[in-house]
Amino acid sequence: MKELVEVIAKALVDHPEEVKVTETEREDAILVELSVAPADMGKVIGKSGKIAKAIRSVVKAASVESEKKVIVEID
Questions:
Q1: Distance between CA atoms of 19 and 35, rounded to whole angstroms?
Q2: Structural contact between residues 40 and 18, judged by C-beta atoms closer than 8 angstroms
Q3: Which residues pair with 8 in a beta bridge?
Q4: What single-letter DSSP state applies at residue 40?
Q5: What would the pLDDT profile of 43-53 be if each residue is shown by its tens digit?
Q6: What pLDDT does residue 75 have?
Q7: Percentage of the chain exceeding pLDDT 90
Q8: Under a CB-based contact definition with an 8 Å cutoff, are residues 55 and 21 in contact?
Q9: Where would I find the H helices in 1-75?
Q10: pLDDT class for 65, splitting at 50, 70, 90?
């Protein structure tokens, strides 16, 4: 999931070199944290959070076969 979030985020931002994605596995879930440059934060979140919601939807669809829930957090 880390790679998927990274590819999507780098396509959206002006400073792809500042995109950082970390993945942490828990007992019941996988936490994916996305960090971008402050100037690009609006591009990743989108108007009313629509882009962030779309990213989460794509990750959720990609993780259907996984038994763990995937949580995407944007820092």
A1: 6
A2: yes
A3: none
A4: G
A5: 999 999 999 99
A6: 87
A7: 85
A8: no
A9: 2-12, 41-45, 50-62
A10: confident
Separation between Cα atoms, residue 53 and residue 58, nearest integer Å:
9
Q: How confident is the model at residue 67 (pLDDT cuts 50, 70, 90)?
A: confident
CATH (domain of 64) = 3.30.300.20
Q: For helices 2-12 and 50-62, what crossing angle results, to 10°?
A: 150
Paired sense of beta strands 20-25 and 29-35, if any: antiparallel
Please report the pLDDT score of residue 36 as a whole number: 96
CA triple 55-40-35, angle to 5 deg = 60
Q: Look-up: residue for tokens 């919601």?
A: 53
Q: How many domains does the chain have?
A: 1
